[in-house]
Write a structure and sequence with these properties.
There is one protein chain. The protein is α/β, with parallel strands linked by helices. Helix content is about 35%, strand content about 15%. The chain has helices at about 25-40, 65-75, 95-105, 120-130, 145-160, 180-190, 220-225, 250-255, 260-265, 295-315; strands at about 55-60, 80-85, 110-115, 135-140, 170, 195-200, 215, 230, 270. It has a five-stranded parallel sheet with strand order 7-6-5-8-9. A four-stranded parallel sheet has the order 2-1-3-4, with helices on both faces. Strand 1, helix 2 and strand 2 (about 80-85) form a beta-alpha-beta unit. Bound molecules: aspartic acid (ASP). Aspartic acid binds near residues 234, 236, 274 and 275. Aspartic acid binds near residues 236 and 275.
Length: about 325
C-alpha cells in the first residue's frame, strides 16, 4: 500500500491511514497534541472551536463501540458537525459501490471521513479517490491497520512508562487477524522500544512477522517473563475462516491471562487490551478493571488522541479563516 499517500507535498499529515512509515516527529506531535487536549484532569467542559463549520462523517462498515463513540465525542469537542452512518456491510460491496458512497457524501461538502471497513486497504482506497479538500482517517481496515488505536496505546504507555527504550512489550493472542497488533508494532518501533514479543499459538502468528523486528514466543512463560507491558488481543472469530484453534477453552488454558499467571510471570507489568474483551478467553474477568489494567484508561485516551488526529489533519493543513472554510 502506498504509505506516502497520507503526507502532502510539504510532508504534513494529509490523511491518517497507517503508522507504517510515518515519521517519528508526526507521531510525537500527535501524542503531544493529544496531551494538550487530555490536560491534567477533567476536560469535559472544554469545547474547542478548531473544527467549527467542518463536517465529519463516521462511516462504519463494521461494528464498533469504543472507536466510533470516541471519534464522535472527539469531533464534537472540536465543534465539528458529526454524522454517523452505520452501513450494513451486507448491502455494500467493493469498487464502485465504495466509490459511489464516497462521491455522494463528498457532494455534501464533507471535510473528513472516518472509515472502518472489513477490507484491508479500504481507507487507502478512499484516500486515493478523495477530492483535494477531503481527508480520510482509518478507523480500522481488515487485518491491516488501526492507527488511532496504536496511538492511544503508546499515549497510555507514555503516561506510565515514558522511557520507551527500556521497555519490553508482549503482544499476546490473535496476532494473525489483528490490525491493532500491526499498528502497535509500527508505533512501538518508531519510539524505540527495546523488545517487542508476539505471543500466540503457531496458527495465530502470521508468516514472516519476524521481519517486523519482533520476537515470536509460543508460550506465555517465554513471552511474559520480564515484560513491562502486556497487550492482550481478542480472538477475532469473525475473521477466522476454518479452524485456527481446537477450542476457545484450550486457548484459554494455554494463552488466557489470569491474575494468578500475571502475578507469577510478570508481576510488575501493566496490562492493556484494545477491547472488546472476551472474558474467560484471552483475559480472566478479574483482570479487566483496576490495577494493573489500563483498559479503561485506553478508552478515555481515545478521545484526546482522536481530537489530535482530526485537528492535525483538518485544521492544521487548512485553518478556517473567520469561521469560513478555505477550500
Ligand atoms: N477494537 C479493535 C479493532 O477494531 C480490536 C478488536 O476488535 O478486537 O480492531
Amino acid at each position: 500500500m502506498n504509505t506516502h499517500l497520507q503526507l502532502d507535498e510539504r510532508g504534513r499529515l494529509r490523511h491518517l491511514l497507517t503508522l507504517e512509515g510515518l515519521p517519528r516527529e508526526h507521531l510525537l506531535e500527535l501524542l503531544d497534541r493529544a496531551e494538550s487536549f487530555a490536560g491534567a484532569g477533567d476536560n469535559r467542559s472544554k469545547k474547542h472551536p478548531l473544527l467549527h463549520g467542518r463536517t465529519v462523517v463516521n462511516l462504519f462498515f463494521e461494528p464498533s463501540t469504543r472507536t466510533r463513540t470516541t471519534f464522535e465525542i472527539a469531533a464534537k469537542r472540536l465543534s465539528a458537525d458529526v454524522i454517523n452512518l452505520q452501513v450494513d456491510a451486507s448491502s455494500t460491496s467493493k469498487g464502485e459501490t465504495l466509490l459511489d458512497t464516497l462521491k455522494t457524501l463528498e457532494a455534501m461538502q464533507v471535510d473528513l471521513f472516518v472509515v472502518r471497513h472489513q477490507a484491508s486497504g479500504a481507507a487507502h482506497f478512499f484516500a486515493a479517490h478523495a477530492g483535494p479538500g477531503v481527508a480520510v482517517l482509518n478507523a480500522g481496515d481488515g487485518r491491516h491497520a488501526h492507527p488511532t488505536q496504536a496511538l492511544l496505546d503508546v499515549f497510555t504507555i507514555r503516561r506510565h512508562r515514558p522511557d520507551f527504550r527500556k521497555l519490553t512489550v508482549a503482544i499476546v493472542g490473535d496476532v494473525l487477524h489483528s490490525r491493532v497488533a500491526r499498528s502497535d508494532i509500527h508505533a512501538l518501533h518508531t519510539f524505540g522500544v527495546r523488545e517487542i514479543r508476539v505471543v500466540a499459538p503457531r496458527t495465530l502468528i502470521p508468516a514472516g512477522i519476524e521481519t517486523l523486528g519482533v520476537r515470536v514466543c509460543h508460550t506465555l512463560q517465554a513471552g511474559l517473563t520480564g515484560a513491562d507491558i502486556v497487550m492482550l488481543l481478542r480472538l477475532q472469530k469473525e475473521r477466522m475462516v476454518g479452524a485456527f484453534l481446537p477450542s476457545t477453552a484450550e486457548f484459554h488454558r494455554d494463552f488466557g491471562l489470569t491474575a494468578e499467571r500475571l502475578a507469577k510471570l510478570a508481576p510488575e507489568a501493566l496490562l492493556m487490551h484494545p477491547g472488546p474483551i472476551n472474558r474467560g478467553v484471552e483475559i480472566g474477568g478479574e483482570l479487566a478493571y483496576g490495577a494493573p489494567s489500563l483498559i479503561l484508561e485506553q478508552v478515555s485516551h481515545g478521545i484526546a488522541v482522536r481530537m489530535a488526529a482530526m485537528a492535525m489533519i483538518i485544521h492544521d493543513r487548512n485553518p478556517v479563516a473567520k469561521g469560513r472554510r478555505t477550500r
